[in-house]
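Incident log, support desk, overnight shift.

02:14 A customer reports that sequence design results differ from what the structure should imply. Their input is reproduced verbatim below. On-call engineer (initials T.W.) acknowledged and began investigating.
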C-alpha cells in the first residue's frame, strides 16, 4: 500500500505534488488546507483522510475533525494538525501524522512513528517544499521524504 502524506498546502496544490500522489492508494492531509477545492482535487486521486488546521475557516472546514484515528493497511494512524493538541491515547497508534511547523520530521519514539511531511503549499521563509510517501508491506513500512 502506498500512501501520500501532505500538509500545509495553504490554498496551493502544486502540479509536482499531484504528480507524486498519482498511484497512491490513499492520501493524508495534515491540515491548513485553506480551500475546499484542494480536498476535491485530492479526492479524485485516492481516498482522502484530512483534518482541520488552524487556518482552515468556514463551513467546509468545520465539517473536518481536528483529530482523526483510522486504519490503513495493517497500521493505525493518528492525524492532527498541531501535535501539541493530541487528546487520543497513543498506545495503539503506529504512525502519528501532524503538520503546522512546515518542517519535515520523521522519527520513531517507542513503537510509534512521528511524521510531519513539511509543507507543500506556499513557501514559508527558506524552508523546502516537501511531502512524504509511506509504503506499507507485510514485513513493515518505509517512509520517504520527497523534496520538490
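02:41 Re-run completed on a clean worker. Output:
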Amino acid at each position: 500500500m502506498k500512501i501520500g502524506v501532505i500538509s500545509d498546502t495553504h490554498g496551493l496544490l502544486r502540479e509536482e505534488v499531484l504528480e507524486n500522489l498519482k498511484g497512491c492508494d490513499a492520501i493524508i492531509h495534515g491540515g491548513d488546507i485553506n480551500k475546499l477545492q484542494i480536498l476535491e482535487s485530492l479526492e479524485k486521486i485516492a481516498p482522502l483522510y484530512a483534518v482541520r488546521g488552524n487556518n482552515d475557516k468556514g463551513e467546509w472546514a468545520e465539517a473536518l475533525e481536528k483529530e482523526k484515528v483510522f486504519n490503513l493497511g495493517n497500521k493505525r494512524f493518528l492525524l492532527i494538525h498541531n501535535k501539541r493538541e493530541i487528546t487520543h491515547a497513543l498506545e495503539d497508534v503506529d504512525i502519528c501524522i501532524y503538520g503546522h511547523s512546515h518542517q519535515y520530521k520523521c522519527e520513531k519514539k517507542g513503537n510509534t512513528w512521528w511524521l510531519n511531511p513539511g509543507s507543500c503549499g506556499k513557501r514559508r521563509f527558506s524552508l523546502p517544499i516537501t511531502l512524504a510517501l509511506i509504503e506499507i508491506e507485510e514485513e513493515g513500512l518505509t517512509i520517504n521524504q520527497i523534496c520538490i
